Amino acid sequence: MGTATGRTDSGLGVLGADELRLIRAFDALILSWAERLRADERRYPVLLRAEDLEGIDYYENFPHLGLAVATADPERLTALRAATDRPLTALPAEVLNEARLGLPSAACYSVYFDLRGQTLPSEANRFTTVATCYRNETRYEGLRRLLGFSMREIVFVGDGDGAKEHLSGAKELVLGLAGKLGLDMKTEVATDPFFDSNGSRAKMQLLFPVKEEFVVDGLAVGSVNYHRNFFGERCEISLPDGGPAHTSCLAFGLERWVHILTARFGDPRSATEAVLEAQ
């Protein structure tokens, strides 16, 4: 039976064979929800442009999470290696070019960037995607908290009423699943001390006016988020009537579900059977 192994202290965990079966079964269950909701499935590029992230105030609101991708200058890197006989444990900034690309910390950003400048065909549009996301955390803890992790999202882009209904329906689905699986799940309004609601831009109220997390044993394993028309305005996504689109999303951290389901059923194989029966 496979087990999660690897350098989990640095957030670089590895899923074994049984964990992989479990994560695929759980993701397939969520994908079946997306199909019932008629969400169009998408797979987006792994990297995001830094200018796109800047356009949604990402680096202002989340400077603590951001991870960038930079290319190494061959000449400077060769000179550095020639000047030392020690193996490199890191590439210093002086050998790197400007980082024009970033790693996503959430899967839904790519949906909004892909729709940039478009007029939506209807007032209710849904998309689903799965992505490897990255967060520069202060600590890592096995599958509970990874540097790179899988996120499945079902995203609504349309009018405000539809965005809110998407969240209420999504919340009902998740809590219903938790009941079937015998999970002691709570919903908690998410807060982040980074945001200053009394600040000049009231960042939290602007970007995340509604955010609830699904919590099991103190661990947030998913969330529902309503962004109002923030992304619609910043990415110039229009409704058929010309107004800015509202967005909301349902998100799951897949490795975290592997963790809580394995803890609930004793091992990944038993957890997989339970997930398959819950579909």
**Distance separating the two termini:** 24 Å
The main pleated sheet reads as: 7 strands, mixed
Tell me the number of helical segments per DSSP (H or I, 4 or more residues long).
Answer: 10
The order of strands across the largest sheet is 3-7-8-12-11-10-9
Oligomer kind: single chain
Whole-angstrom Rg? 20 Å
Q: Taking all residues together, what is the mean pLDDT? A: 91
Fraction of residues in helices?
A: 25-40%
Number of strands: 12
Parts with pLDDT < 50 across at least 5 consecutive residues? 192-202
Structural class: alpha+beta
String of helices and strands: EEHEEHHEHEHEEHEHEEHEHH
Strand content: 15-25%
Morphology: flat
Report a brief summary of the structure.
This protein is α+β, with helices and mostly antiparallel strands. Helices cover 36% and strands 25% of the residues.
